[in-house]
Structures are given as C-alpha cells and as structure tokens.
Amino acid sequence: MKCPYCDSDDTRVIDTAHETSGPGIRRRRECNQCSKRFSTVERAILNTPLVVKSDGRREPFDHAKLLSGIRMACAKRPISSDALEGLVNSIEARIQQTGKAEVPSKMIGDLVIAGLKPLDQVAYIRFATVYLGLDDVESIRREIDKILER
Ligand SMILES: [Zn+2]
C-alpha cells in the first residue's frame, strides 16, 4: 500500500477494525518514510460475468448496448432515462450476484422482460416481440391478451 502523502511503498498496518455496518475491513496504516497515518478500506468487488450467447460465443456484459436495446423498445414511451438506467443497473447487479463466471444471454433477456412489464406495457410488447420471437400476429395477440386480462 502506497502512502498517499509521500508515495512511499514503505507503510505498515498499525490497527485493523472489522466494521459490520461499514463498507468493509478498515486498516490504520503508518508510513515509515514520513510517519503520517492514513486509513484504507478493503472490500469485495463483484465481477461481471461473461455473457454466453445462444450460439455459444462469449462476450463481456455491455451496459451501453443493453441500454440502447431497451431504449429502442421504449422509443416515444413515457419512461424516464433514469428508469431505464435503473433497469440496466439492476440487471447488471443481478448477474453479478450470481457469483458465476458466465451467464446465458437468456437470463439477461428474461430480466429485461420482467423489468419492462411493470414499467411500460407497450415497451414490453415491443421487446417481447423481438426477444421471445413472437413472429406472428396470433402470438403477439396472446401476449397482449395476457396483459389486458389483469
Ligand atoms: Zn509517507
């Protein structure tokens, strides 16, 4: 750990505190060069798993790409950018929480579907038409009927 005052690598831990409510393990350190003291916090960083496409290719989770895909389904709908950004953030958090190295792209599609449905039903139908492959009027109508029945 580098000293934030003099940039020296020569620092030592003088105290370690486990804070159950705080962000993680806090350590007091002292620099052996300039004798100044500072704290560090050690916490876990969640890795974002790779996305496995239906054809077996793997690609990194692309926040911007997912957002633009959802935004397209939501074009001209009364949904705030904050709500869309929030949806993508929650999807990213959910796949991180799996703790897995890879997740199927279907999981992400399912999370988008589940998130869009309560947000905007027209956007949901647009996204579902592409994502669920509702390629005939009959299956699109069934999906709309399901919404209207509620
Ligand atoms: Zn120092």
Summarize the structure.
This protein is α+β, with helices and mostly antiparallel strands and 150 residues long. It has helices at 63-73, 81-97, 105-119, 121-131, 137-149; strands at 11-18, 25-31, 37-42, 50-52, 58-59, 102-104.
Structural features, described:
The chain has 150 residues and is of the alpha+beta class. The chain has 2 domains: 11-42; 50-149. 45% of the residues lie in helices and 19% in strands. The chain is built from 5 helices and 6 strands. It has helices at residues 63-73, 81-97, 105-119, 121-131, 137-149, and strands spanning 11-18, 25-31, 37-42, 50-52, 58-59, 102-104. A 3-stranded antiparallel sheet has the order 1-2-3, with no helix packed on it. The protein has a 3-stranded mixed sheet with strand order 5-4-6. Helix 1 crosses helix 2 (81-97), helix 2 (81-97) runs antiparallel to helix 3 (105-119) and helix 3 runs antiparallel to helix 4. The longest helix is centred in the middle third of the chain and has 17 residues, at 81-97. Residues 3, 5-6, 8, 31, 33-34, 36 line the site of zinc ion.
Q: How many helices does DSSP assign?
A: 5
Cofactors, ions and other ligands in the entry:
zinc ion
Total E-strand runs: 6
Q: What is the share of helical residues? A: 40-55%
Write the H/E string, N to C.
Answer: EEEEEHHEHHH
Silhouette:
elongated
- The separation of the N and C termini measures 58 Å
Class from helix and strand fractions = alpha+beta
Characterize the biggest β-sheet.
Answer: 3 strands, antiparallel
Widest β-sheet, arrangement of strands = 1-2-3
| Domain module count | 2
Contiguous uncertain segments of 5+ residues = none
> In percent terms, what proportion of residues is strand?
15-25%
What is the radius of gyration? 23 Å
